[in-house]
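Dear all,

This email documents one entry for the complex benchmark we are building for the journal club exercise. For each entry we list the sequence lines for every component of the assembly. Then comes the predicted three-dimensional structure of the complex as a token string, followed by one or two observations. Please use this as the template for your own entries, and keep the labels exactly as they appear.
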Amino acid sequence: MDLDFANLMAEQIAAAMKGKKISPAELGDTLFRRSTRAQKELNLFISFDQKHIAGEIKRIEQHLPDKNCSLLGVPLALADNIATDDQKTTCASRFMAAYQPPFTARVVSQLKENGALLIGKTNLEEFNLGCSGGSSFFNSVKNPWDLECSAGSGAAAAVASGLATLALASDTRGELRQAASYCGVLALKPTYGRISRKGLIDIASSLEQIGILGRCTSDLAIALQVLAVPEPDNPSTLQIEAPPYASLLEKPEENFKIAVPTCWNEASHLQDEVKNDFQEQLENLDKLGLEVNFVTLPHFKDASLVATMICAVEAFSNLSNMDGVRFGHRETGKHLQEMYIETRSRGFSSKLKKFITFGGLTSTPKYYDTFFRRGQKLRTLISRELESCLAENDLLLTPTTPFKAPSFAAPVSGKEFPDPAGYYTAAANLSGFPALSFPLFYEGRLPGNLQFIAPRKHEAALLQIASLLEKEFSSHRPKFALSLQEV
Amino acid sequence: MQVSPEELNNAALDARVELSATETKELLREVQSFFNLTKKLQEVDLEGIAATSYGHQEPNILRDDLIRSSLPLEESLANAPAVDESCFLVPRIIEE
């Protein structure tokens, strides 16, 4: 069988493995060759090696007799801020460069128990702080569509290049969806708590959660089905059973009422190309017979600012245990305080140091009420606005990012507070609502994107609209700069 | 609202990091710009609005209060830069 992973769905790979049309050894060899090539071209991994892939193949062979494994042999990439007990977990930080977690994140165990094959740990911004490039200790990830542009994350690049069928990465203010939009893949950030956060080394606990990247809706549905299982004893996980996502896709809803915030075209750095593409897609949705309503959400445009107020304070607090005592990098110092300061000053990037200092500033009595506390109240207001809008509409629609994949030569953003990439994405993190980024393809241009936000626990609606649009819009996928199929 | 370099340096000390002169200058500009962007938000009437501090609104879960094993000592110490038998080693706490 041709191992053209870029065009195979998870279900097809699992069926080919079960039917012995692909041998595990052949799969392992192909993945290692392609990973080596992709790493050379894109710098998408922080760790992957032949020995690890060989270990994974051995494990897959043991799964072969189990016909219930829905992800048997499905190549998986994992962002390097999600813990694995057999590979380092660096968070793309110098401070964590040698860190070996004592346990594996629950989401990884769930996918592996269902037969997924973990190729390696992927590159990201340090502690997933944005996805505009420049802060990873392991350098930036190149975009498989245009090597002069940022991919946003190694996980998105791995899926876009056809190396991985699925990837898991985290989303704090929209990083998962932003990278997906830069790379032309699907991204699903589920409802906060729908899937486990255990083993995620997060920068902002109340905002950040793990999401799924894939190239087709059915792959996202299969992965979500495996992951959306209540986790007793974990208060950050929803204790409710998930609906049967895959079977809901077989008979998708076709009468969605879609709301579009009137402020969608007020984003700073909004590119004309993104604006024109979005307007064109609104017309296409109309032609599909979907009801599109423009709605006023007075504070949607402030979501990125508010999320930044909260994220900075949570990051200041969450990263306070990175002190070089129990784990991580350590510098020398004449006394304990000097050791802490030297360790963190050299262990963290300049971007992260400035961000946690900002969090420290807004945690002081002078600024706490004006920024952090006020931010938490505005968070309530933004969540209420979304709730009330989605009580009358099925979905909220915006672009995912105001601009396409930023070029390394002229980056659009990254240094400012807040990152302008988060204009559309941050509201879903503040409210905990699920959101999905849907790719749009154009010949000779970087991929575009649409973002849908659904009410809490309504991931099925997101998968159904994506499935509907997939049939209408995704028949043509242009060739990208990097082709791994002949490797 | 004006931020002084001194306030920023104190915040850096709270965050246990040292900023270079260039970083302090850059951060002053970035923070000032952020504060300017949030001017309108300072005018929003939030009277009676509760603060949201968590990602979902589900009831908390309390596990049974039972003794159970924790991370073994060897694994707890495995990632530490300096250890002495069962202890994490740190530099002296009081300056000479």
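Observations: Chain B touches chain A through 56 residues (CB under 8 Å). The beta strands of chain B are 83-84, 87-88.
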